[in-house]
C-alpha cells in the first residue's frame, strides 16, 4: 500500500551529523571499476548509428546536399539535412535549431546527419556527403578592438557593469598603483566520456521521446527539448545513471541532443545513437572563451587598497550570446571603496561558448590575484599580509555581512603548512642547480548557490529501511553516496538503511549538477522531504508511507553575502636555460562549510587543483584564423596535466559548519579548487625568475624571451 501526500516546499532545519563527515565508500565504485556501470552510449545495442556532417565554411548558406553516394552504401538507412529533417516547433535558439534552415553560423555546424546500421558505415557515409555553399564574409578573430558590445547580463544573472565611487580620482591619488593587462586563452572541457545520446521516438506513447543522455541534468534536458518538439515536459523521459565527467560542458543541452531526437523522429520505433567524437566536442559542446582583463589597483604606501578596476574583453558567438562573468570576483574579493567593473563582447562567426568549471571565476581570479601579487611587490608587502590587510569586514559589493568569510584563516594555515615564513622576498633569489625556485600564493572564492525548484521523495520500506528519490545526476562527484549520508542523518538511521534513486525524469525534479550547487540543492530537498514524512506519518512511518517536498534556501541568505573561500600555495621551478616549468608542490586550504564525505571531497579538490595546474601550464585551444575553427582537436595537441606533472599535491579544509547555507552545514566544493590555482603558479614563477608572464599558459618561451623585473636592483 502506498500512502502519499501532496508535495510541499520548505526550508529544512539543520541536520545533526552522524553519517555526514565519514569517508563512506562510494556506492558506484564497484560498478565503475568492474565495467558494469552503463553509460549513455551503452544502453541500446540495436540502435541505428548517427554521424553528423559538419560545415566547412564559417558563414553562409547551404545551397545543396548531395547524398547520392551515401545512400548507395549498404547499411545506410537515412540522410537528413535542412530540407528533410523533421521540423521543430521553436527555432529561436540557433544553437539548438539544428537542420531547420540553410544558414551556417560557424565552421563545424551540423549540416546533415547520416543514419546507418553500423558506426563504420555511418562514418563512411558521412564522409561521402557532398555539401555546396554560398559563402559569406565572416569575422572569426578575437581582438580587443572587436570587443565593443555590452551584454544585458553576464552568466548567472550578474550585472554587466558596476561603478562605485570615483575610480579615476582614486587611482590618481594612490601612492602605489598597478595597471596591467592579463589574458587567458580558449579552454575546452574534454570530459573522459564524450557527449552521447540515444533517442527513441514513439508517437503513440505517453512519453513520445525517451533519451539516454550523458548530461549534468536530466530535468533541464527535458525542459529544454520538450517545447522544441511541441511536447509537454512530462512527455520527455531522460535517463543518465552514469556520466563520465562534464566540467560544465554537459550542464546545458547542446545541438547533439536535438540531432539525436530529430533523427529518432525520422525513423520512429528505432533507437538512434549519436556519440560525438573527441574532435567534434571542440565545435559542438561549448568551451571557455578567451579573456583579456585590464586591471587597475590603487593603494597607499602600506598596501591598503582604495581602487579596484577590472575591465573584461571576451568573445561570444554571433548566433547565440554567452557572456562569462569574469569581473564579478573583483566586486567582492578585497576592500576598496572605489571600484569599477565591466564586460564587453566580440560577436564572432564561431562556435557557441558555454559553461566550463568555475566560469568567470577562473579567468577573473587569475587576473585579480596576479595583479595582487604585482601590488605586493610594488608596495614591498608580503603577498599573504597584503591579502590579510585588505580582507573586508563586509561585502564591498553590497555592504552585506558575510555568511562565514574565513579567508584569513585559510591564508594563515596554508602559510604555516607550506613554510611560507622561510620565503626570501626578493624574486630570482634561489637557484638550485640549473633551476630557479620560487613560491606564490593566491586566494580562491566561489559563490554559495542553492538552486530553487528541487524536490525529493522519501518512501518508508520494510525493516526500518527507506528509499530516497531525487532526479539528481552523479557526474562522477559522488552524489549516489553523499545523498545517502544526508538522508541517513535526516532520518536518524544508518547510511546502510538508505537506498537512493537518482538520474531519471521519472523522479522528483532536480536542478543541474553544476555551479557547485548540486549537493546543496538536492540535500536541502531531501531534508525537507524527511521533515514532511515525519509530519505526515509520524516518527515511525508504516512501510509504503511516502512524502514529497521541495527544499527552499534559508531566506536569511538574501541578507548575507554567501561565498566560500580558500588559499592556494605553489612552488615553481623554472629551468634557467630551457624555461621548462615544474610545480613540485602545491597546497590548497579551503573554508567550505561541513565536508560530508572527506575522501570524496579530497578527490574533488585535488581534481580541480589539477585542472587549474593544467590551465596554468598547458591548456590552450588554438583557432585557425582563416575560418575560426579549433585545430587542437584532441588530447595529443590540447595538452592537459598528466600524472608526471602532478607531484606533491595537498589539500585540507577548516573544521566548520554553515547551517545558513544548507541544513547539512555544507557548501559547494566542486569548483573552488580551480579558482586561484593558476595565479598561485604564475606568482611562483615570477618569484623564481623575476619574469612576470601575464598571459596563460605559462610556456617556456615566455620566460626566455622576457627580461626579469627585479625591483630595487
Describe the protein.
With 713 residues, the protein is an alpha+beta fold. Among the domains are: 9-35 and 451-552, Aldehyde oxidase/xanthine dehydrogenase, molybdopterin binding domain (Aldehyde Oxidoreductase, domain 4); 393-446 and 558-713, Aldehyde Oxidoreductase, domain 4 (2-Layer Sandwich), CATH 3.30.365.10. The protein is 23% helix and 24% strand. A seven-stranded mixed sheet has the order 4-6-2-15-12-13-14, with helices on both faces. A hairpin with a 5-residue loop joins β21 and β22 (466-469). The longest helix is centred in the last third of the chain and has 20 residues, at 518-537. The model has no long low-confidence stretch (mean pLDDT 97).
Mean pLDDT: 97
Percent helix among the residues?
A: 10-25%
Query: What kind of sheet is the major sheet?
Result: 7 strands, mixed
User: Poorly predicted ranges (pLDDT <50, ≥5 residues)?
Assistant: none
Second rung of CATH, namely the architecture of the domain at 393-446 and 558-713: 2-Layer Sandwich
Overall strand count: 27
What is the chains' assembly state? single chain
The name CATH uses for the topology of the domain at 393-446 and 558-713 is: Aldehyde Oxidoreductase, domain 4
The SS-based structural class is alpha+beta
The fourth-level CATH homologous superfamily of the domain at 393-446 and 558-713 is Aldehyde oxidase/xanthine dehydrogenase, molybdopterin binding domain
Distance between the ends: 83 Å
Radius of gyration, whole Å: 26 Å
**Approximately what portion of the residues adopt beta-strand conformation?**
15-25%
The largest sheet has its strands arranged as: 4-6-2-15-12-13-14
The coarse silhouette is globular
Number of helices: 15
CATH C-level label of the domain at 393-446 and 558-713: Alpha Beta
